[in-house]
Each structure stands twice: as C-alpha cells, then as structure tokens.
Amino acid sequence: MTQDGSAAAGLHTPPLRPEDAIERPVAAGTPSILAPLPDGAPPSPLLRGRSLRVLHGMYEIAGQGMVLAQSLRELGCDARAFSYQIAWDGRRSDIVVDLDVHSATLGKGLAMAGAFARHAAEFDVFHLHFGTSFLPRRLDVPLLRAMGRKLVFHFHGCEVRHRTHMLATHRLSTCTECEAFCRPAHQARLLDDARRHGDLLLYSTLDLAESVPGGRNLALTIDAARWEAAARERPLPDPGRRDGVNGPVVIAHAPTNRLIKGTRHVVDAVERLRQEFPRVELRMIEQQPWASMPEFLAGCDILVDQLMMGWYGLLAIEGMAEGRPVIAYLREDFRPLRPGLPVVSAEPATIYDVLRGLIRDPVRRAVIGTQGPPFVRRWHDLRAVGAVLLAEYQKFYANPERRP
To answer: Quick one: which H or E segment has residue 164?
Structure first.
C-alpha cells in the first residue's frame, strides 16, 4: 500500500488525453469566500428607485438558479429563473422556453434568438450558470455588455474544472477516477469570455477555486425550512436501537456521477459492513423526484455525499438541514474556511471505518445531527445567501468600474 492509502482504496485514474495539454491559468492561495453578512438590515433591493431586475439562467443545475431567484424576490428584487428545459426531477423555472419541442436545429435557434430579443432589455443583471447564456457559444454576451447590463458567471463543476491541474496537484479530486468528459478548449474559451465580460465570477464549491482565477465562492443554497420541516414531521422510529443489529441503519447516497462521487467505494464498504451489521441498508438516490426528496432523506440515518471532491455538495447540505450525520471527503486546507462544519470526513481508504463507527453509535450520530440545522441556516439558507448575493450586485452600481 502507498503512503496515501491509494492502493488499499483500489483507485484507478484514467490517463490524460491530448486535449488535456491545453494551458490555462490557475489560482493560488486560499479561496475567496463570500461569507454571511452580519445581522442587521439587509442590502437594498432598489436600483434608481425601483426594484433591481435579475435573471438567473440559462441552465438549471441542482435548482440553484431557481432558489437564488426566490431568495432575491424575498428581499424585494424583481428576480426570475430562466431555462431552456424542464428539469428531469420536475422542477420548473419561472420562465421556460422548451427547446425539446423543436426537432430541427433551426427551430431551436429561432427560439433562442426570440428569448434573447424578449428578455435582453428586461433585466439589469444577468446571472449566467454553468457557462450558458441565451445564444450558443455565448454570442449574446458582448451584446448584453454593450447594452450596459451587468453579467455574473457562476461555475458549478466540469464546465470549468481544470483536470490536468487537479490530477497533478491533489491526491484525490473529482477527476481522480472520472472517465473525462470535460472539454478543455471549451473551458478555456468560457473563462476568457468570463474574464472579458463578467462583472463577477462565482463558483459553488471550494474545489473549483483553483480552476477559476479571480472567482469567489458563493455557498450552495437551499430553503432550509423545507428540509427541517420534513425531519420534524417524520422522525426516525426508536433511534436508540438503530445500530445495524438491534434496529436498522439506512445509509443514503446519491450517485449523480458514480466515478466523481466514489460510489463503488461506498457500495463495497456497505457490503463488507453487512457481515457485522445485518440490518444496514444502502439506499441509492437515483431519479428521485425533487418534491419527494425531503421525505426520502427523513427516512435515512446517515448520508454519504462524496469521497473525492474535497468539499461537500447539495446532498450534504440537505442532510445537515434534516439533522442527519453527513460523510464527505474534506480537504484539510479547506476545513478552517467553514468554522463549525459538522461533516464527517472520509475517503475511499477510510470509508469502511468511518461508517462502522457511526453505525454502531446512535448517540454520536444524534450529537452530530443536532449541529447541522444551525450551520445550514447560517451558511446555506436562501435568506442568508440571497443577502450576500444582493450585496455583491449592489457593488456593481456603487463602483461601476469593478471587474474581476
């Protein structure tokens, strides 16, 4: 076994591709974090005496555009979420132009051009998610800039993650076992567009910091009250006996991408643990409708988010909000950046032991679980994150020359 435990974990890293040789700048140093604002009056939602108008689009990823638009509306902005499709899990943006109804490329293109024509003059701030905009190849971005609109580029993952750098620099990352589907040439063009035209560059998880020079971290966002309510309404029965022998222990995992999440290591660990704990169950969260997710998580004892990324994602946040202990691989250099984070760290080489310790100790699980809801309310609730985002928007107008 190697010193870092990779042999014991059975890691397999696919080789670099020729296209991975494309050079890109990387950010060094501690990630720049947009922290929660102090208690007190929230930022003003007004611009020149009327509500600031904000559009989030044009691609929904984990509902972030929708929940951020909701957060801004609750603060008094005129904010909407836009997308070109209805999400597979049933979530629907405020404005949907469904490209799937068009079979031909021409029809799709005309629909996109029509969306740009209708909405380009309607909003002050365009908050662009996952490298998308109204038109293919972001052809509309220079036009929006010329119209005096403010542009935010918000990155969420493999549309920008620097695979070559992550593999060369970090023992574990989402790229470690991934069969690469990222497109480095497209990533380079996207970052160039963001640097030339963006007023603000954001990324959603800390592992993206090195891949987005000049970017800042805006915490992933949920409506915490919704998840807390589900846990209150559906408490786990007989929690003191839930130790895998005298009572069940349900472990949940959402393998949206099994190679990125380290899913096979979770499955292997649970299979081994069943020899000692016959009432352990692994529930995979796959194609689960969004409306039923709070109820689904309320029926689980432990959540395993991911074992590779070095930070935690949306499932972890939802689980913490429901008072469930959450496991995710956390890089040591990131831990000081979220004081009080109650996530239990594990990686492929340690997931068996970490799970075993939690399964056999319901009291420890309960203690960890109680720390989750207040942490989520401070860092991830839509009301807290919305105030942080609105404060950043207002800086555009207080300092018109501000650029990344």
So the answer is: helix 163-169
